[in-house]
Amino acid sequence: MTTYLYDRADLRRRGIKISNSTLLRLEAAGSFPKRVRIGAHSIAWLASEIDAHIAALAEAREAN
């Protein structure tokens, strides 16, 4: 089953506390997972992609 993160509050619960404009900029640059359209008027992030992104940041930190 796919889990979705619908808004920035869902991201904050995972420790991601950045502004909407920063999120949009990071998504456009390919530095943050892009949202997917899940309905006619709904978009969300896939929780698995956000978790993988956080894990990759942790791995990069360990490599330095």
**What is the string of helix and strand elements?**
EHHEEH
Q: Whole-Å distance between the termini?
A: 35 Å
Low-confidence stretches: none
What about the largest sheet?
3 strands, antiparallel
Walkthrough of the structure:
- It is a single chain.
- The chain is α+β, with helices and mostly antiparallel strands.
- It has one domain.
- The chain has three helices and three strands; from the N terminus they run βααββα.
- A three-stranded antiparallel sheet has the order 1-3-2.
- β2 and β3 form a beta hairpin.
- The protein is globular and about 45 Å long.
- It starts with a strand and ends with a helix.
Write the topology of this structure.
Blueprint lengths: L3 E2 L2 H6 L6 H10 L6 E2 L5 E4 H17 L1
Antiparallel strand pairs: 1-3, 2-3
List keywords for this structure.
alpha+beta; 12% strand; globular
Give a short overview.
This protein is α+β, with helices and mostly antiparallel strands. It has helices at 8-13, 20-29, 47-63; strands at 4-5, 36-37, 43-46.
